[in-house]
Write a structure and sequence with these properties.
The complex is a heterodimer of chains A (676) and B (102). Chain A has 26 helices and 2 strands. Chain A is mostly helical. In chain A, a hairpin with a 2-residue loop joins strand 1 and strand 2. Chain B is an all-alpha fold and 102 residues long. In chain B, helix 1 runs antiparallel to helix 2 and helix 2 packs antiparallel against helix 3. Chain B is elongated. Classes of the chains: A mainly alpha (676), B mainly alpha (102). At the A-B interface, helix 26 of A face helix 1 of B.
Chain lengths: 676, 102
Amino acid sequence: MADYLFLIPALPLLAFAINFIFGRNFIRDKAHWIAAPAVFASFVLSLIVFFNIRDKGEALDKHLFTWIPSGSFHIEVALHVDQLTAVMLLVVTSVGFLVHFYSIGYMQGDPGYFRFFSYLPLFVFSMLMLVMADNFLVLFVFWEAVGLCSYLLIGYYFQRRSANNAAKKAFIVNRIGDLGFGVGIMWIFSAFGTLNFFGDTGVFHLAETGTVSGRTLTGISLLLFMGAMGKSAQFPLHVWLPDAMEGPTPVSALIHAATMVTAGIYLIARAHPIVEQSQTAMWVIATIGALTAFMAATIAITQNDIKRVIAYSTVSQLGYMAFALGTGAWISAIFHLMTHAYFKGLLFLGSGSVIHGMHEEQNIQKMGGLRKYMPITFWTFMAGSLANAGVVPFAGFWSKDELITGAWTSSVFPNWGKVIAIIGLVSAFLTAFYMFRLVFLTFYGKPRFDEHEVHVHESGPTMTIPLVLLAIPSLLVGFVGFPPDDGRIHHFLAPVFESGSSTTEAAAPPAETASLYVLQETTTDEHAANETAAAPAEHHISNATKWTFAILSTIVALSGIFVAYLTYITGTISATAVARRFNGIYLFLYERWRIDEFFDRNVVQQLKRFAMFSWRVIDVGIIDGTVNGMARLVTGLSGRLRTLQTGLVANYALAIALGMVVIIGVYFAAFSDLLR
Amino acid sequence: MTDVGTDHFLLLSAVLFIIGMMGVLIRRNMIIIFMCVELMLTAANITLVAFGWENNSMSGQSFVVFTIAVAAAEAAVGLAIILALSRRLHSVDIDDMRVLRD
C-alpha cells in the first residue's frame, strides 16, 4: 500500500507538467481532461489510504529519495501518512476535484484555460506533499510552493492591475510569516539536531522527553505560529486574503477556503508536541485566534462585495481554528477545518455561480430576488450558510460548538478559556448575522437591478453539480463528530494527539476538562502504554456543559439569523439608521478596522521612503558618484596635464633643459660627495 | 699670472654651454637655434679636451674628433630639415611650427 502513496501527489504533478508544456499549442481548451481525472484518481487513492489506516491503525511511510546528504544535516524526502494526514488528504482531494469540475464551466472560454488547469493541479500537488512531509524542511519547501501557486492563481487575470497587486500582497505578507517560520526551523535544527518529525530521534519525541529548555520551546512555537499567521490569515497578517478575491472564484474556493489557508492550522496541529509544552505560545495562539475571529466577523457585517464577505468569514473561521489549537482542543480544530472546507468551498462556488449568473456583478446591493432565477444555487447557498452560521444539525454546528465548549473547559487556560469562549459566542452571533444578511440581500426581496437589462440565469450542470455535491457534506459531515468529543473522528484522530509527557497542567480528576486534549499522564510511569491506547476515559466534559453550550450556540445562531431577518426582510430594523447612529463604529468596520491604511502609512510608505533614499542618496549619489567621480577626476587631471603639450618647440626645449637641471641637481644633492 | 688649470677650461666650457642653452631656449630663428646647438657641442668638446689634458691622455682629443664629425653630420641633416620646413612655412620662425598644436 505504501508503495502506491507516491501516486497521490504524482498524478496532479503530471497533470501540471502536461498541461503546462503542451497546453498552449496542443491541448488548449481540453485541459480539464488531463487535470480533473488526475485529481479524481488522487481522491480515490486517498480514500483507499484512509480506509487502510482506519483498519490497521498505523501510519504509512514511504521513503522517496535523499535530498541533502550533508554530514549531520541529512534531509530525506519521505511520505508519512498518519490519521491526521489522511484526513487532510481526503479534504484536499475531494474539494480539489469538485473545484476542478466546477471550473470546467466557470472558466469556459477563458484564453488562459490551459494555464488555469496547470496551476490548479500544481497547487494540489504542493498541498498534498505538504501534508505528507515528514520533516520540517520538506514541509517548508511545499509551504512556499503553495504560496507560489496562490500567487500565480490570484494573479491569473494578469492584465488587471488590481489582480497583480493582490497577488504581490499575498505573497509578500506570506513571506513575512515565512521569515518567522524559517528562523524557527533553523532554531529547531540548532536545538534538536534534526528536522525529522517522527521516530525516537525525531523532533517530537525529543521535545516530549524534555531535552530542550522551555524558553527554546516557547521561542520555536512562537516562530512556527508566525508562519501560520501568514499562511492562515491571522491578525495582523490577514490583510492579503480579502484582496485575494481578485483571483477566479474556484481559486478562492480551493485555496483560500479549504486548503492553503489551513496549512497553518495543520502545521501547529502537527507540531503540537512542541507547542503544547509552552503555555506562553498557547496563550498567544489562542488570543490571536480569538481576536482574528472577532475582528473579521465585525468587518464582514459591513461589506458589500459577495466574495469579500465570504473572505472575511474565512478569516474569522480560521481564527476559530486557531483559538481551538491554542486552548488545546486539537481534534476539534481539525474537525472544524474539515467541516469548514466543505461549507466554505460551497459558499465560494455558490457565489461564483451568482456572479456568473449576474454577468460579473459582485455587489450585493445590486442584487436581490435571485431565488427565483437560480434555485439550485439558492438552496445550496442556503445549506452552506446554515452550516457556517452553526445551525443544528448542519456540519458547522457540531464543530463550532465543540470549539467553543472546548475553549470554555480548557484545561490549559481555565479562566482565559472562558473569555475566549465568550468571544467565540459573540463572533458566532455576528457570523449568523452577516451570512444571512448576505443571503437575504442576494436572494430575497425585490431585485435591485433592472430585470430587463440583466438576464439572470442559473448556471449549467458543471457548476451546479459540485454545488450539490458539496452541500451534502455541509449537511452531514458533522455527524462524524457526533456525539461531541466521542464521535468517529475523535477516535480516529486520538492516536495522533497523545503525548508521552505531562504538560504544565496537573490532571485534575473529576474536573471538567475536555477530552479532546492531549491525553495527559500524571507521571511518566509504566501505565503509559496502556492509557494512551484507550479512548478518552478519564477526562470528560460533563453532559450538562455540553448541552448548555449546544443550546447556547443554537440560540446565538438563530438570534443572529433573526436579527438579519428583521433588518433585511421585514425592515423592522433599518440598517442605514443604525449605521448613521453609530457612524464612527460603522466606518471603522467598513474600512476594515483601517488595518490596510495602518500598514500603508507605517510600513509601506516608510519602506518606500527608505527605497527612495537608498536609490537617490546611496545608489545614485554615493556609488554612481564615486564611479563617475573617478572618471571625472581622471579627465580633469588629464585636461590639466594636456596643457603641457603646447606644440611649440621652444617649450619642449625648455622642458629638456629643466629636466637636465633637475637630474644634475638630484645627483649632486643625493649621490655625490660635493655637498656633504 | 696664475697657472691655467683644468678649472678654467671647465668654467669656459660651462659658460659656453649656458650661453648656447639660453640661445636654444630664447631665440626664435631656427638657424640661430642651430648655431647655439653647435655652441653647446663645442662646450662639450672643450670639456673633453680639458680632462684629456689634465690626465695626459690622448683619449680626450680622439673622442673630440668623433664628436666634431657627428656635429657636422647633424648640422647637415638639421639644415636640410629646416630648408624643407621653411619651404612649407615660408618662415624660419620656430613659433610658426604649430601644426601639432592647432
